[in-house]
Amino acid sequence: MTSQIEIVTPGPNGTLLDEKGSVVTPPIGWEFLPAGDAGITRKATLHKTFWRLQVQMGKRKISKGIWAPKALIDAAKQEMEATRQTAEFQKKATAAKLRREKKQLEYVDDFYGEVFRFLNFHPRYRQEAERMAYLICEHATPVGSGTVARTLRIPIEERAARAVIAWMRHQTTGYDNMQIARIKGERRKVRQLLAQRSVELLKMYRNGEPLLPNCPLRQALR
What is the pLDDT of residues 73-118, one digit of tens each? Predict the structure, then answer.
């Protein structure tokens, strides 16, 4: 089994399970390399002698790292460390970082605009719209946040709309403290109900209606 790529998953009591569900133990001399450093992982897997540890996250399978011979992992770390000390690598890394930062700033600006347009508040509540768009972007746009704002599977305007409703669910309702029954579909029903309430609340701001002192959105924006 060690001569080919294998996928393993976490089992009970710290064990590992192969693709058939059987408990397996890494060979002597192997160690675990957590995910996070793509360069080291790429070099450590060149010899095709490793197990990839995967976990199910919703509909996706996420790699948590690999099990591989310690000698291969150590060699990969040493090789990457030497490469990263070269002037050429550092120059490329700096340029890449600047490109990522520029791209991120541009995306935050674009996303802020889409959120502001979706809110579409009455002019009397323009300040609230600006504040709300800022807070939503601050929460939803960081790289690695895992929010709907970071997915490219749907148009940016839809991402903005979903981000608004998600933010309101956590900031203007009691969702985070709700005791939701562990019944299939129940959490989705609760979210749909809270989304309807959020839409009704947004309508008040869009129509420029007077707000009550205990308005949950006003309190959240403070």
Answer: 999 999 999 999 999 999 999 999 999 999 999 999 999 999 999 9
Name the band, by pLDDT with cuts 50, 70 and 90, for residue 1.
very low
Share of the chain above pLDDT 90, in %: 73
Q: What does the chain look like in DSSP terms, one character per residue?
A: -TTS-EEEEE-GGG-EE-TTS-EE-PPTTEEEEETT-HHHHHHHTTTS--EEEEEEETTEEEEEEEEEEHHHHHHHHHHHHHHHTSHHHHHHHHHHHHHHHHHHHHHHHHHHHHHHHHH---GGGHHHHHHHHHHHHHHH-STT--SGGG-SSS-HHHHHHHHHHHHHHHHSSSGGG------TTHHHHHHHHHHHHHHHHHHHHHHT----TT-HHHHHH-
